[in-house]
Automatic annotation (TrEMBL), chain B:
Origin species: Marinimicrococcus flavescens
Gene Ontology cellular-component terms listed: ATP-binding cassette (ABC) transporter complex
Localisation per UniProt entry: Cell inner membrane; Membrane
Record function comment: Could be part of an ABC transporter complex.
Protein name according to UniProt: ABC transporter permease
Segments crossing the lipid bilayer: 6-29, 49-70, 146-178, 199-220, 235-255
Length: 265, 257
């Protein structure tokens, strides 16, 4: 198998012609997207446009109908299980619904990757978990609680802690600040920024929260009707000259985005 | 609402998904046996299947043993064959009723809870989360359950055999006028290793089936609480059908010669 060496210019993640339908419902249609190495890209777009599906395709959790996804130059679509397992070691993922393991206490959730992939001793993993919990603003007392005993926002932060605990190269954040109060949301935004700045991680985030976009994004991409309709640096978002983006960031009901169609596909 | 149609539909469902189940089993064993192993998970499942099923299996066994003794007595006394009761009880328990009843009880208790747990993990994306954390759900979730089922059900059945014979003994000694020692001696008089062994082999097969169906139905479940509910029912029904089928086949294998 030939593996092209990733140079520093090539994008960390390269998506080309990605197509995914669920039955008659076309979700992604010939989508192209580059996530630059060591940068934070935020995907915005209406509810139900397929943002989560896009991330799951990259993670290999959803099998696309067509197209190519390359991570460090390696093809994900149709990759063997061993290739996929190796690639996934680079990933961290915060699920939209947190997806915490409800049979394990909080600290084991956070330390799961450390225990599974890094084979850290349990005592050490626990200490690391409590440290990461602190970084998402959770006290050490929650470490021994079970996920069901936490509020929605706390679960989200535990999910975030789990995603970053192994210090992965690529981190996916699916709506990291949804369900958090504005102050905590800012703490989380700052944390995501730090992951990219200090750890050199590549981040691909999804959010509806424009304050969060401005804080965490280096670049922004807008998903509409199965395609990326605009992509550019975050500084240009206010004068993108793109009607879709302008309607979205200003939250107007009138414009080219037809809500009824977006909701029904 | 036709009861026959219900049985037929359940049978069709099993046949329909037979290919999927077969591949699922291959994956579980093929990937599971190559490790990494999760001893914690295996232990947890062994305790859950073995230890926590003891009350329900024990209760089933003792009443079955008592009823067996009573029924054979009322039947056999008609032609003066009461002396065969200890043999009838021990052979029925070890060869047939121990494994089948334990299998069905465990299918209801453990199979259903496995389907519910794994199904919930599926619909809340916990299984996806496992994959992203470099952990194979087949190795972490399915294999420990299947191994625990395979190992623990024979132990449960061994206990059920003993308790069942004890039930027969209680009934015979306290109600039917058998001598306590005489009953025990007669129990072992015609018992062969093969009788117990075939029951334990059955138990292993049934344990495998229960865990496999619980995991499979949970793993493929879709669509929220309703999907998980349906998976639970399917796990119990399909495990029961497979247990009864496999029971016949193992019996044929052991005793047809
Ligand atoms: N497993 C699935 N089976 C069938 N349809 C699905 C599945 N997953 C997603 N979809 C459909 O794909 C579309 C996109 O879903 P997705 O979860 O990606 O939306 P989203 O952009 O993340 O929305 P939100 O911002 O509300 O989270 C939805 O219309 C949904 O109905
Ligand atoms: Mg989403």
């Amino acid at each position: 198998m030939k593996r092209s060496l990733p140079d520093m210019q090539s994008p960390k993640i390269e998506v080309r012609g990605l197509v995914k339908s669920f039955g008659p419902k076309k979700v992604l249609q010939e989508l192209d997207l580059d996530v630059p190495r060591g940068q934070s890209l935020v995907v915005i777009g209406g509810s139900g446009t397929g943002k989560s599906v896009l991330i799951k395709c990259i993670l290999g959790l959803v099998r696309p109908d067509a197209g190519s996804i390359k991570v460090d130059g390696e093809e994900v679509v149709g990759a063997s299980r061993s290739t996929m397992e190796r690639l996934r070691a680079k990933f961290g993922m915060l699920f939209q619904g947190a997806a915490l393991f409800d049979s394990l206490p909080v600290w084991e959730n956070v330390a799961f990757g450390l225990l599974a992939a890094r084979k850290l001793p349990r005592g050490e993993a626990r200490a690391r978990a409590i440290d990461v919990l602190g970084r998402v603003g959770l006290p050490a007392e929650v470490a021994d609680l079970f996920p069901a005993e936490l509020s929605g926002g706390m679960q989200k932060r535990v999910g975030l802690a789990r995603a970053i605990a192994t210090e992965p190269e690529i981190i996916f954040f699916d709506e990291p600040t949804t369900g958090l109060d504005p102050i905590m949301a800012d703490v989380i935004n700052e944390l995501i920024r730090r992951c990219v700045r200090d750890l050199g991680a590549t981040a691909l985030s999804i959010t509806h929260d424009m304050a969060s976009v401005r804080k965490i994004a280096d670049r922004v991409a807008m998903l509409y009707a199965g395609k990326i309709v605009w992509e550019g640096p975050v500084a240009e978002i206010d004068h993108s000259g793109n009607a879709f983006v302008e309607q979205f960031i200003n939250g107007r009901a009138e414009g080219p985005i037809r809500v009824a169609q977006a909701a029904n596909g | 609402m036709n009861p026959l149609a219900t049985v037929g539909r359940a049978t069709l469902t099993v046949c329909d998904s037979a290919g999927g189940i077969f591949l699922f089993a291959l994956q579980a064993l093929g990937r599971g046996l190559r490790g990494p192993f999760y001893p914690r998970q295996i232990l947890r499942q062994m305790i859950d299947i073995g230890y926590y099923s003891l009350p329900v299996v024990g209760l089933t066994a003792i009443f079955t043993g008592m009823v067996l003794a009573l029924q054979s007595y009322t039947g056999f006394s008609r032609f003066e064959a009461q002396s065969a009761i200890p043999t009838i009880v021990v052979l029925s328990m070890t060869r047939e009723l121990g494994p089948v009843l334990a299998g069905l009880m465990v299918a209801g208790r453990v199979g259903a809870s496995m389907a519910a747990e794994i199904g919930t993990m599926r619909v809340t994306e916990q299984i996806d989360a496992l994959s992203t954390l470099s952990t194979d759900p087949f190795r972490y979730l399915v294999f420990p359950r299947v191994v625990a089922g395979l190992l623990m059900l024979p132990l449960l059945v061994l206990v059920a055999d003993v308790i069942g014979v004890m039930g027969g003994w209680l009934m015979s000694v306290f109600k039917l006028g058998f001598g306590p020692i005489e009953y025990v001696n007669r129990t072992f008089e015609f018992l062969e290793t093969q009788d117990v062994l075939s029951g334990l082999v059955k138990a292993g097969v049934f344990g495998f089936i229960v865990a496999l169906m619980g995991c499979f139905q949970g793993y493929v479940s879709r669509g929220g609480a309703q999907g998980v509910g349906a998976a639970t029912t399917k796990a119990v029904v399909s495990a029961s059908i497979l247990i009864l089928t496999a029971n016949y086949m193992v019996t044929e294998l052991f005793f047809s010669r």
